[in-house]
Amino acid sequence: MKTISMPEQPVGKFDGKSGKWTLTEAWAVRVNTNSLRVMILPGFKSDGASIPRWLWPVVGPRLAAKTFPAALLHDALY
Fold first, then answer.
1. How far, in Å, CA of 73 to CA of 27, rounded?
2. What is the Cα–Cα distance from 60 to 35, expressed in whole angstroms?
3. Which among 25, 1, 2 is positioned nearest to 12, based on CA atoms?
4. From CA 19, how far away is CA 59, in angstroms rounded?
5. What is the dihedral of CA 16, 17, 19, 25, to 10 degrees?
6. What is the DSSP-derived secondary structure letter of residue 42?
7. pLDDT along the chain (78 residues), means of 10
8. Beta carbons of 22 and 13 less than 8 angstroms apart
9. Are 8 and 21 in contact (CB under 8 A)?
10. pLDDT score at 33
């Protein structure tokens, strides 16, 4: 069986016109400690985390590197 290398962080691009981020490479993320993984395919779009602007100084903006992976997984599972 061939091993596929996945990026640790999601790889994609942001479209300022639509305000959405599009995944450009497949991304797999571990969901729990039992090695359950979810694979999100290229082309998936997300608008990031729903964080009120007044909380951005504490948490970061909706597309911040520390919150975006969780927001992307949330959107994919939704």
1. 10
2. 29
3. 25
4. 19
5. -70
6. T
7. 62 87 88 79 88 80 76 88
8. yes
9. no
10. 65
